[in-house]
Design a protein that fits this description.
2 copies of one chain form a homodimer.
Chain A: H1 15-21, E1 32-38, E2 76-79, E3 85-99, E4 104-114, H2 123-137, E5 142-148, H3 152-160, E6 164-166, E7 169-175, H4 176-180
Parallel strand pairs in A: 4-5
Antiparallel strand pairs in A: 1-3, 2-3, 3-4
Amino acid sequence: MAVFEKLTHICSATESGLSSTLFNSPPFQSFTVFLLEISHSPFFNPPPPSGSGFAPIDRIVSLELPLVDPEAESFKSGSNGAENEVVVAGFVLFFPNYSTFLAKPGFYVEDLFVRECYRRKGFGRMLLSAVAAQAVKLGYGRVEWVVLDWNVNAIKFYEKMGAKVLPEWRICRLTGDQLEAYRDAM
Amino acid sequence: MAVFEKLTHICSATESGLSSTLFNSPPFQSFTVFLLEISHSPFFNPPPPSGSGFAPIDRIVSLELPLVDPEAESFKSGSNGAENEVVVAGFVLFFPNYSTFLAKPGFYVEDLFVRECYRRKGFGRMLLSAVAAQAVKLGYGRVEWVVLDWNVNAIKFYEKMGAKVLPEWRICRLTGDQLEAYRDAM
C-alpha cells in the first residue's frame, strides 16, 4: 500500500510494532481488521469466538478467469479443513470515530487493501460494504476515509459506492519532533 | 461551532444524543473530552476518580483585560469550593486513531472549541497542547485533525503549533441514505 501511495518514506511499520498495538480489544470497540481470506474450496466456518459478537461472512464468488497468486505461499493463512489452502487476499482496518454534529459514533477506515492479483473482482467493494453494513447495524452515522486527490480510480470507485468526496477539508498532522516537543507542555 | 463553520444544516446533535453516546469509556480508550473550566479564584482539585489515570491540569493565567462572559449563567459548571463560580469556556473532543504506516496509535481531534469571549487568550493552544502531551506520554505517533481550507486563521494557528497541513488528501464520507443502503449488503 505504501508503494502504491508513493509514501514508502513515511512507512516505518514492523511486524512486532503491529502485533503489539493491534488485536488487543473486542471487535468494533477499537482498531478492527476484517481479513479477506480466499480458498478454491468452500470454508467450514468454526463458530465465532464467544463474546466477539461477530461471525465470519462467507461468500461464494465465480470468476471468469482462473486466479493465479504468485505469492500464495507467503500469504497462506492456515487450512479451511478441505484440501485447498486459504490465502489472505486483502484487508480493511477501521476503528470508531465520533461526530458531535450527529451525536453519533461512526467508523473511520484507515486502510482498504486488496493484493494486486485479486483486484478488479469486487473484493474491495466487499470489504468496504462489510464495514458499512456493520456501521448501519450498530446505528452509527457515518463511514469516512481519505483518498489522495490524484487517485482518480479510487475516487470513482468510492463515488459509485455512494460516498461524497469533501473538497474543502484538509488534514492537519502533528508528528515526529513537532509532536515530541509537547512532551512537557502540560 | 456549527455556526462558525457554516455547517448548521448538517448539525443534528441533541443533548440526549450526546449523553447516550459519550462518556461511556475510561479516558483515552475511546471518545475523550478535555473540558476547559475557568474561575476567577483558584481551584481546589479533588483527587482524580480512581482508575481514570488522569488528573485535572491546573493553570493560573493572568489576563490584561477583565473578562466578561455574558452567558456565564448558562455555562456554569458547579463550584470550585471558593466563592467564584466555575464556567465551561471550551472543550476538545478526541479519540484514538491508528496508523499502519507507523504501526502506532495516535489521537484524532474531532472538535476544538473555545467560546467567543474566551478566544485569543491562549486557551485553544492549551487544549490542543494537552492532547499532544498526552499522545507523547502514551507513546503515540501522531495527532491529527481537519480544517476547512478557507479558515486561514486556524491554519496559521495550527502551523505555528508545529502541524503540517496535507494538501493532497481528501475526506470521503458515506452517510444518510447512501450508508443506510448497506444495511443488508452483507
